[in-house]
Design goal:
Elements (H helix, E strand, L loop, with lengths): L2 H40 L1 E8 L6 H5 L5 H4 L2 E8 L2 H10 L4 E5 H9 L5 E5 L7 E4 L17 E4 L5 H12 L8 E4 L3 H10 L4 E4 L2 H8 L4 E5 L3 H8 L7 E5 L1 H6 L1 H20 L2 H7 L8 H11 L11 H14 L1 H5 L17
Length: 349
């Protein structure tokens, strides 16, 4: 073989080798793509709407980084809203399958002819407190002293507003006896109380911020503890954050509902089995703020969660009683509370 022939041969063989490498690489890409599509096809997509409040809805946010959704074959697409009411409306409107909201929403929507059902109860204590601004326009030592003053709530018509109205009613007053002011999310709520833009306020997560900034913060009522819930609501537990869905969706997607319930219950179990700092490490970085405040918030909220996601009939009755003070539709409606919640999707004890 001549040098020219050898060179040509080597070039031809190199071309064949390159072709084989390219073909092999393409085969691997196609195989990986097919495997990815197969895995995606095996996953069930669930559209979940939630208010951007990572401590209130902590189990929802933990289940993804802990791998609990994936373990159940779920691809949970989370859409965040500024409040629980918007999350609920997204389910009513059909743009979401599930809402992480408060159980009160299930009763409220059912009374309005748009029934929802809670199928996992996350918070057994709602985590709210009625606090007094250090710059209140006059001294306040009791709930009766609030008459004529400005009282902040998250948003009018929200659980913080319902709690305020119930407290007022237990002390011979009504919502008309105070000036209700919407003060928004924890950061703006804390600022409103500190600056004296309101004389008092019902706050949730802002309570932790305020206690750090105002060591002598005056608290008239709270639901961060069993004692506080008992004193202000007359019950040992009061269901708060829950997963809500239309009853027909749960019937049609019963297996998906059970898988989602298992994932959230595993998150609840994780919360009770780990220290606040460990739980905080699992919370996605996008929800971290000041490290000290975050840790204090986790310490405050972790004990508020249920261990098993179940709801008791007597606690549902209390929620209806609280709502009846604020909402005529709930007060006058003939609601079958047994249709507003279910424990059947939860893991068997």
């Amino acid at each position: 073989m001549t040098d020219d022939s050898g060179t040509a041969f080597r070039r031809a063989m190199a071309g064949v080798l390159v072709t084989r490498i390219v073909v092999t690489a393409l085969a691997l890409v196609v195989s990986a793509s097919s495997a990815c599509r197969a895995r995606t096809a095996d996953m069930t997509t669930v559209r979940l709407a939630v208010a951007r409040s990572p401590f209130t809805y902590l189990p929802v946010y933990l289940a993804e980084p802990l791998g609990y959704y994936k373990a159940e074959g779920l691809d949970v697409a989370i859409a965040e809203f500024s409040g629980g009411a918007q999350s609920v409306q997204s389910v009513i409107g059909g743009s979401a399958d599930i809402a992480a909201g408060f159980y009160e929403h299930a009763i409220e929507m059912t009374a309005a002819g748009k029934p929802l059902q809670a199928f996992v109860t996350m918070l057994k204590y709602p985590g709210m407190a009625l606090v007094i601004s250090p710059k209140a326009s006059r001294a306040v030592t009791s709930i009766e002293d609030l008459k004529g003053l400005r009282v902040g709530v998250g948003t009018p018509g929200s659980p913080t507003h319902f709690y305020l109205n119930y407290l007022l009613s237990r002390h011979g007053m009504s919502g008309d006896d105070v000036g209700v002011v919407g003060i928004g999310a924890p950061v703006t709520a804390a600022l409103a109380v500190e600056a004296g833009k309101v004389d008092a306020a019902v706050v949730g997560g802002a309570m932790i911020v305020l206690q750090r900034r105002l060591p002598h913060l005056q608290v008239l009522a709270e639901t961060f503890s069993r004692e506080g819930v008992s004193a202000s609501l007359g019950v040992d537990e009061y269901p708060g954050a829950a997963l809500l869905a239309k009853e027909e969706w749960l019937k049609t997607n019963a297996d998906t509902g059970r898988r989602l319930a298992r994932a959230i219950v595993r998150s609840l179990e994780y919360i009770h089995a780990h220290q606040p700092a460990e739980i905080l490490e699992q919370l996605p970085a996008a929800y971290h703020t000041d490290p000290d405040v975050d840790l204090a918030s986790m310490r405050a909220f972790a004990p508020l969660f249920s261990t098993d996601g179940r709801m008791a009939a007597e606690t549902a009755d209390v929620v209806k009683r609280v709502l009846s003070v604020s909402l005529e539709a709930v007060r006058t409606a003939n609601i079958d509370l047994g249709r507003t919640y279910t424990n059947t999707f939860l893991p068997v004890k």
